[in-house]
Specification:
The complex is a heterodimer. Chain A has 3 helices and no strands. By secondary structure, chain A is an all-alpha fold. In chain A, helix 1 (2-20) packs antiparallel against helix 2 and helix 2 runs antiparallel to helix 3 (71-102). Chain B is mainly α. The longest helix of chain B has 32 residues, at 167-198. Classes of the chains: A mainly alpha, B mainly alpha.
């Protein structure tokens, strides 16, 4: 399971990077979204992968890491997801503006000669 | 500390900060003054300087009694930096010098400056410089000294470049700043090493730790770095060339900075650090030889200058070399002589610069070749200049003679101690002769003889007050020369004692020591110098000589041009304007940095062991889809709509992974953000080409593939490596206290709104800023012709044309209503339900999955659905809400909650809680954290909608919809 998730994160990151190196702003933004998914999963995984150990305290289980998964990376990633959204939106608008100003959706604002 | 001479009304040490900081206050005042109010500006600075001088004189008796005044307050204690001042004999003498000559310079400048020149600015800069200089000599610890040291470099830069419209002034100022600033950096390095050796930056402790410093293995680097600082500042060979360039400054600046003060900061540092660093062989050789070289080079070059101030500048270099050499000799009497010559040189050189300024002012030129016979036109100035030049040459009965005599005696003293050391008195005598020669040239060519080139305009004596400073200084030269014991001993003694860090040797300041070797050397130098000058004029004719000092300046300028060129090449090659190139470099470097540990000498650490946890079928299925969708997104990226759908599938897989691994909050957030992102990009797709035309890239694709593969593989290995290692976390604390102290059972939410509340506050602020920027970017293009998705991209050349005449192709008709009846009805039905769900998620968030972020996203998406299903107009007709106000209120509430905890005396964002029971909902945690969460909620709803609607409303723009 760990191996599969590690591979999945790698694929997300690699694909994201590859797309970010493309020339169109749309591809760049899609790539960035994939990369931020990878990074979020990565940070989340650093708190270790636990099944059935939601960090919601109930009276029957003692509040230790043996009974609950690590809540801290989750809190970090939660805000990261939301901010990632805001950044995607901002980049999109910048891309739109760039296309309006330059007439091109190439990341450099003009087609290569 | 005080009390040796009875308790004064105010302890003198309290006056130190007043003394040191008053010039800065004056600068502030002057900055507010109008430039044309020249008199007022001069009066302000003069009164501050005179008051400072009064304070210094007041401190005289205590200093003479051997007291050291100290005042300090803690500043950056962890760095060992306190803000404090310390006045011992040396600092006192320098304060006297700075303020005494400062007062004369202010008077002189008040008459020198032209009516049209910005006088207030000039005096403000001068005040800054005086303050910085006082700071250097009065600083009580080395770090503070360096701070003020840099301040002198900066303020002198501004003063040299005062006539900033002149290119030579700008060049001279830049050069001075580059060299003295660079030296300042070296000094900082040296001081840090000294602080490391001694364990303190306090001057008292550093000066007392000389033996410890000299025995330390880091003594050599510390010594050389400090010396580099001192040598660059006092224009020692081979850094001397900045000083003549700095002559582009107004003459009062030259007279002050380049004779009496700034260049003296370098030799001050030598004197200051002498107890700590001096006395070693390294000190002797480096300082003495540098001084000797500077002494000779400066004196030699001075003879051949045609610019009056240039001659004086090289002569200054030479005299600074003399002083440096005296400190290098490692002899107590030499240090006394060095301090003495600092005083003497300051008096005669300042007066000479001022005389040169008067000549320039009255005749309109400083070119020696165009001057001559001025003794007739300016008899008084001529007399003053001749006396001062005599002091510079070391003529008996003038002050320069006394210290030069002591200098000769000390070189002789040293000559007896080693084989090649006979060079010292020989070099000293030679330099003496050269200095007589240039002094003779100054006197003869300017005041007598005749001009050889187009003569200057007829001159007359300057306004009397302009001459007063020169008169005062020349009077001092003569008085000290005749009665040294009476006049200079009270100033010299405490200063020399402080420079030596202990007791003074026996010495006498008499004029006549009988016929001895130093006297013979003086006589030889005088006669030889006069002969040399006469010979040069007769056989070479100095006026026709186009000899200009080459070397340092050219090398500096070449180096400067070279660096600029190299950096430009580097910048152009790296920053070629291609975003792809930047990203490539960035990712390449990140990859290389990640690989570095594997390539290091420890050898290949091996791949991490594979964990043994077989994946259940469900998980395999999720990621089979996830990975396939990811790869397909890349492959089908040109069919953009399809790519978006696949991107949504990827997000879903991520969300399911969160569910799988016990992160319900994350799963909810991820799926909501996924929805919002896809909606957003769908909206944006309208203004981007549906299909991205391929960009030709020959090598690029494979290179990118390699890089991307490297990144992917690297991250996979990294994850495995991290996850197969033992795990430690700070989270047990959160788990243990979430309920008891945070008042909630959903630990993730408690961390967000309580433990890391400040972080969250920052994050929603970022969110808000991003939304507002999006809004601004979109609003500013309203009403402009927008290229639509259907239109082909226009290249840069066609762009102007496209703007000039809108394309005739009609944009696709905008669907105003009835996108889908089904969606319309369902979305309207769903809105209240969604809103309720949102409120529910918000309320339970502290204890169960939910909270401000998630609830906010739910409401935002429900509202966006209305816009998508029913159209902008339909919604706006019913409720035109400006979601920017939501953002504002959200931030206000969140911030207000934080500030609220101040009211009860707790730190920002401290939360408290209670559990009132609500009907139907149950026990609701009414924590102040919930109020904070409300702020988060509003900000998230507001920001998401502002962003989405900004893009959606682009269609409102006339250019786009019609």
């Amino acid at each position: 399971m760990t191996l599969l998730l590690a591979i999945a994160i790698g694929v997300l990151a690699g694909t994201g990077v590859w797309l970010m190196l493309r020339a169109r702003s749309f591809e760049l933004i899609v790539g960035l979204t994939l990369l931020s998914n990878a990074v979020n999963l990565f940070i989340f995984a650093m708190g270790r992968l636990r099944v059935g150990a939601e960090p919601i305290i109930d009276a029957t289980r003692a509040p230790t890491l043996a009974n609950y998964t690590d809540p801290l990376p989750q809190a970090l990633v939660l805000t990261a997801i939301v901010i990632g959204f805001a950044m995607t939106a901002l980049l999109l608008v910048i891309a739109l503006r760039a296309r309006m100003e330059t007439g091109s959706d190439h990341v450099d604002g003009q087609e290569p000669r | 500390m005080n009390g040796a001479t009875g308790a004064p009304l105010i302890p003198l040490s309290v006056l130190l900060p007043v003394l040191a900081l008053a010039p800065f206050a004056a600068a502030l005042l002057l900055a507010l003054l109008e430039n044309r109010r020249r008199r007022a500006a001069a009066w302000i600075l003069a009164s501050v300087v005179l008051a400072g001088l009064g304070l210094v004189v007041l401190a005289g008796p205590a200093i003479a009694a051997g007291e050291v005044l100290r005042w300090s307050v803690p500043w950056l204690e962890p760095l060992g930096l306190s803000f404090g001042f310390r006045m011992d004999g040396l600092a006192w003498m320098f304060s006297l010098l700075i303020l005494g000559i400062g007062a004369l310079v202010v008077l002189y400048a008040a008459w020198y400056l032209d009516e049209k020149e910005p006088a207030a600015r000039f005096f403000m800069l001068l005040a800054l410089f005086i303050g910085a200089m006082l700071g250097v000599v009065l600083a009580e610890n080395l770090l503070l000294l360096v701070v003020f040291w840099e301040a002198t470099s900066l303020s002198s830069f501004l003063l040299i470049g005062f006539w900033h419209y002149r290119s030579d002034a700008r060049r001279g100022a830049r050069m001075a700043l580059a060299i003295t600033g660079g030296g300042g950096l070296c000094l900082l390095g040296g001081v840090l090493i000294l602080g490391h050796i001694v364990g303190s930056f306090e001057l008292d402790r550093v000066l007392a730790a000389g033996d410890q410093i000299r025995a330390h293995p880091l003594y050599q680097p510390a010594l050389h770095l400090v010396l580099l600082g001192a040598f660059t500042k006092s224009a020692q060979f081979p850094f001397h060339f900045w000083l003549p360039q700095a002559m582009a400054a107004p003459t009062p600046v030259s007279a002050y900075l380049h004779s009496a003060t700034m260049v003296k900061a370098g030799v001050f540092l030598l004197a200051r650090m002498y107890p700590a660093l001096g006395g070693s062989d390294a000190w002797f050789w480096v300082v003495t030889l540098t001084g000797l070289a500077t002494l000779l080079v400066g004196a030699y070059l001075a003879i051949f200058q045609h610019d009056l101030k240039g001659l004086l500048a090289y002569s200054t270099i030479s005299h600074l070399g003399l002083i440096t050499m005296l400190f290098g000799l490692n002899a107590q009497l030499a240090v006394v002589a060095g301090v003495f010559h600092i005083l003497n040189h300051a008096t005669f050189k300042a007066s000479l610069f001022m005389s040169a300024g008067i000549i320039d002012h009255e005749t309109g030129t400083r070119d020696i070749r165009r001057l001559g016979g001025l003794a007739r036109q300016l008899p008084i100035t001529a007399a003053l200049g001749i006396v001062a030049a005599g002091a510079m040459a070391g003529v008996p009965l003038l002050n320069g003679f006394l210290s030069k005599e002591m200098f000769f005696a000390e070189t002789l003293q040293k000559a007896g101690q080693g084989s090649v050391l006979w060079l010292l008195p020989v070099g000293a005598t030679l330099a003496g002769a050269l200095s007589v020669a240039y002094s003779a040239r100054f006197v003869h060519d300017v005041f007598f003889g005749g001009p050889t080139r187009g003569p200057a305009r007829a001159a007359h004596e300057p306004p009397h007050f302009m001459r007063v400073p020169v008169e005062v200084l020349v009077l001092l030269c003569v008085a000290v020369g005749i009665a040294p014991g009476l006049l200079i001993a009270p100033v010299l003694m405490p200063a020399a004692r402080a420079a030596l860090g202990g007791e003074l040797p026996e010495f006498s300041l008499a004029i006549w020591h009988g016929v001895n070797l130093p006297l013979a050397m003086s006589a030889l130098a005088l006669v030889g110098g006069l002969l040399l000058y006469a010979g040069l004029q007769r056989f070479i004719d100095l006026h026709r000589l186009e000899h200009v000092a080459r070397g340092g300046r050219e090398m500096f300028e070449m180096a400067q041009a070279g660096i600029v060129r190299a950096m430009r090449t580097l910048t152009v090659s790296l920053q070629n304007g291609s975003l792809q190139r930047y990203l490539l470099l960035l990712i390449g470097f990140a990859l290389a940095a990640g690989l570095l540990p594997w390539l290091s000498s420890d050898g290949w650490p091996g791949l991490p062991a594979l964990p043994d946890d077989p994946a259940p079928l469900g998980f395999v299925a999720i990621w089979a889809i996830g990975i396939a969708a990811t790869l397909a997104t890349a492959l089908l990226r040109r069919q953009r709509l399809l790519a978006l759908v696949l991107l949504g599938a990827v997000g879903l897989s991520v969300s399911l992974a969160f569910v799988w691994f016990s992160a319900p909050d994350l799963a909810l957030t991820q799926i909501l953000v996924d929805v919002a992102t896809i909606v957003l990009m769908m909206l944006a797709l309208r203004w981007l080409p549906q299909q991205g035309p391929p960009v030709r890239a020959r090598l690029g694709k494979w290179r990118d593939l390699l890089l991307a593969g490297g990144v992917g593989a690297g991250i996979t290995v990294l994850v495995l490596a991290a996850l197969t290692r033992p795990f430690d976390s700070i989270s047990p604390y959160f788990l243990r206290t979430a309920k008891s102290e945070g008042g909630g059972t959903n630990v993730v939410n408690v961390i967000l709104v309580d433990y890391r509340g400040f972080d969250t506050f920052g994050e929603i602020t970022v969110l808000a800023i991003a939304a507002l920027v999006i809004h601004a970017l979109v609003v500013s293009v309203r009403g402009r012709q927008l290229p639509l998705a259907g239109q082909p991209s226009v290249d840069a050349r066609g762009q102007a044309q496209a703007q000039a005449q809108p394309k005739a192709t009609a944009p696709p008709p905008t669907p105003q209503t009835h996108a889908s009846l089904m969606l319309e009805v369902v979305s309207r039905l769903m809105l209240p339900v969604s809103a309720l769900v949102s409120v529910y998620l918000f309320l339970r968030g502290h204890n169960l999955p939910g909270g401000g972020f998630i609830a906010g996203l739910v409401l935002a998406i429900a509202l966006v659905l209305q816009f998508v299903a029913n159209g902008q107009r339909w919604v706006d007709e019913r409720a035109r809400i400006d979601f920017r106000t939501w953002v504002g209120w959200g931030l206000l509430i969140a911030g207000g909650t934080g500030i609220g905890s101040w009211l009860v005396g707790a730190p920002f964002l401290t939360s408290s809680y209670d559990y009132p029971v609500w009907p139907l909902v149950g026990a609701v945690p009414l924590a102040s954290a919930a109020l904070f969460d409300l702020g988060v909620y509003l900000t998230v709803v507001g920001s998401t909608l502002v962003a989405l609607l900004a893009i959606a409303r682009l269609r409102d723009t006339p250019g786009a919809s019609r």
